[in-house]
Amino acid sequence: MSTFASLESALKHYFGHDTFRPGQKKIVEAALQNKDLLTIMPTGGGKSLCFQLPALLRKGITIVVSPLIALMQDQVDALQDNGIKATYLNSSLEYNERRSRQMAILNNQVKLLYVAPERLLNERFGLFLNQVQNDIGISAIAVDEAHCVSEWGHDFRPEYSKLKLIRQRYPQIPLQALTATATKRVRQDIIQQLNLRSPNVHVASFDRSNIHYEIQPKDRNIYRKMLRAIRNESGAGIVYCLTRNRVEEIATRLKHDGIKALPYHAGLSDRERSSNQTSFLRDDIQVIVATVAFGMGINKPDVRFVFHYDLPRSLESFYQESGRAGRDGEPSKSILFFSLSDRQKIEFLIDKKPDPIEQKIARQQLRQVIDYADGHDCRRQIILRYFGEKHQGNCGKCDNCLHPKPIEDWTEEAQKFLSCVARCQEKFGTNHIVDVLIGSRKQKIYQYGHHLLSTYGIGKGRTAEEWRMLGRSLVHQGLVGQTTDGYPVLKLNRRSWEIFRGHLAVKIAIDKHQSKTNTAYNPRRAEAELLYETLRKLRKQIADRNSLAPYMIFADSSLKLMAQVRPKNKPDFANLSGVNEYKTQQYGDRFISAILEFNEQHKLPVSLPSKSQMVTLQLHQQGLSIAEIAQKRGFAVGTINSHLAELIEMNQPVALNKLVPADKQQAIINTIEQLGDNILKTIKENLGEDYSYNEIRLVRGWWRVQR
Fold first, then answer.
1. Computed from CA positions of residues 194, 198, 204, 205, in that sequence, does the dihedral angle turn out positive or negative?
2. Which of 65, 229, 327, 685 could covalently link to 44 via disulfide, CB atoms 3.0 to 4.6 Å apart?
3. CA angle 390, 391, 393 (to 5 degrees)
4. What is the DSSP code (8-state) at residue 398?
5. What's the whole-model pTM score?
6. Taken in order 472, 476, 479, 480, is the CA torsion positive or negative?
């Protein structure tokens, strides 16, 4: 690192970023001290940089173990486009190309070498590695997607389990294991399987704060609902379906309705799957419709939305799949379309499993997904609790937090519920506790003698669904424990006893309203958005010319920054986040020219009040009505109303409550959120004769500013 004043300066030089993401710097520092490492960092957290930057700052070459050819090719292409010396060796290469790359490695022209686990363990390749170690040195071995090592992981691969042989072969070389998700059990297994020596373990937060989580009911209009949502999105997206037939059906319908979409599932040929994936990565299509076969190895950071047309089989699968949105940290969306009929389909598939233990685990996983989809609490809180991470709730970025349900004090009901858990000796799950509370006559109640308990039937004043809702909320809030080894048994904890003693109140959301998707047009961002789209088109042209995915040229976040800052020269351009010196030289002139040309062609009006509008505002602040201002100024009432509506959109101090009654405001807002804000006539017709165009314009102006 002698040529760099700090790790930050090295980061800017190679990757164009001014600062590290949370946790990255400590991991890089530990790697540079040649320590064994286990890094658990969610998709989009920047875990690749944790082994790439140390590789560039150390002598010798870093070997990266990667499970998929497409994944390693993607990462190498991205590194090379940053001017970084990286390559891969896999079965897709002809002999001459493979030999040429090996010579470049031996000539010390490569810093990062990507290989599959099978090749790394190949005896002949082992001889080549020995030569590399002797001639230039191997600085580290990084095992990406390390959860594949563990049989407890969600994607176990037998070939990965043999990687422990690498430690035996090269005991002095530090190992770095990295993965996006791993429970405590999987983490321990990775350490054991790879024989990591006193590893530095870093577990990042699983919170993907840039993702908006939402549940929408899956009814007969689901396809039209999803189509509207896709049309409202400008970026790329993934639609996950449960079966191949559903994938083909949805992809065909989307194409018929003018959406550029392709299918992806295991029933397609390797060639067709690869072709469809490439089309998606390079932005030739907007949507890929897929089964879970479309997963690990999709290194596309600018996916803006992930829609689950069908219910996922586990909460971990949902987290992994929804987490393919917004890996670049930009705002993204996850919508799950939920119906109980999906539950029945998955239960049917579970019943077909031959192993009773597998069935038990699968049912528990399904219940966790149902709890998430049917829950009234913060979606983020539910997801993070699954991974053993606490969240205070009220995230402000899920439907339950943005459109909170009415909150009620259910302390008394919670005391009854927890008392029933205690009297059932903490040996049963929620459904049985609910059956006891409502006085059910099921055989199981009599079998255990629970009809004789003092809590039997004391909950008849509430419905079974209300009690189940309370049970879910108590679990999500950590007010009662729940086992995770098969059948979920409720267990009292310290906070449960605080509720018993009256030291802790229990408040829960008791109603269910579906959130609305708002796609308001904000005039303040209009110019930047126009320039952003211009730069996106330029990026696509350059990417196509170089056979690269567009995000490898520049990330969406960098383009948005260009559209806001509008650099006029190379030094300003190089200062942008995500732009390094190499990319400035490669692409700077073209992007700067596009920005300057846009500035000339699009001289949009600045959103500042005119002198005439300011006069209207001053009279309004003096307490004059719209009619009085019009009379005083000699203008039509409609003109003054337009002034005030425009002033509101410019965030000027107009007292809307004096112009439009509060009840009318709310009705207009509800209608705009339902129909959009572009066509006044449509809004007016929906509201009726009691509402004027002037009132609608004023409220619409306020509503646009709030978006």
1. positive
2. 327
3. 145
4. B
5. 0.60
6. positive
Q: Which tokens is 661 given?
A: 């009654």
- What's the token pair of residue 425? 């000796």
Distance between CA atoms of residues 206 and 498, nearest Å: 29
How far apart are the C-alpha atoms of 49 and 15, rounded to whole Å?
A: 9
Residues 676, 680, 685, CA angle at the centre, nearest 5°?
95
Is the per-residue pLDDT at 478 higher than 80?
A: no
* Contact criterion met (CB below 8 Å) for 75 and 52: no
Backbone angles phi, psi at 514, to 5 degrees: -80, 135
SS3 readout for 24-79: HHHHHHHHHCCCCEEEECCCCCCCCHHHHHHHHHCCCEEEEECCCHHHHHHHHHHH
**Measured distance CA(14)–CA(133) in Å, rounded:** 25
Query: 602 pLDDT exceeds 80?
Result: no
Task: Delineate the domains of the chain, giving CATH numbers in brackets.
Answer: 7-203 (3.40.50.300), 211-402 (3.40.50.300), 407-509 (1.10.10.10), 523-601 (1.10.150.80), 611-706 (1.10.10.1390)
Residues forming beta bridges with residue 399, ordered by sequence position: none
Phi/psi zone of residue 214: left (φ > 0), alpha (ψ -120 to 50 degrees), beta?
A: beta
Q: Looking at residue 524, what is its pLDDT? A: 45
Question: Which DSSP helix (H) or strand (E) runs through 442?
Answer: none
Question: Which residues, at least 6 apart from 508, have a Cβ–Cβ distance to it below 8 Å?
Answer: 376, 377, 407, 408, 410, 469, 470, 473
> Where does residue 27 rank: exposed (0-12), middle (13-18), buried (19+ CB within 10 A)?
buried
Q: How many CB atoms lie within 10 A of CB 356?
A: 8
Report the alpha-carbon distance of residue 422 to residue 365 in Å, rounded.
25
Share of the chain above pLDDT 70, in %: 93
661, with CB counted inside 10 A (0-12, 13-18, 19+), is exposed
Counting every residue, how long is the chain? 707
170 to 144, 174, 517: CA distances (angstroms): 18, 9, 55
- Please tell me the predicted confidence (pLDDT) of residue 517: 35
Question: Please, are residues 548 and 562 in contact by the beta-carbon 8 Å criterion?
Answer: no
pLDDT band at 604; cut points 50, 70, 90: very low
Handedness of CA 456, 462, 467, 470 (dihedral sign): negative
Looking at residues 107-129, what average pLDDT do you find? Answer: 91
Q: What is the pLDDT at residue 608?
A: 60
- Per-residue pLDDT of 482-535, as tens digits, reads 876 557 789 999 999 999 888 899 988 765 433 333 333 444 456 777 788 889
Per residue in 659-700, pLDDT (tens digit) is 888 888 888 888 887 777 767 777 888 888 888 888 888 888
Alpha carbon distance 165, 162 (integer Å) = 6
Asked if residue 386 lies in contact with residue 316, where contact means CB atoms within 8 angstroms, the answer is yes
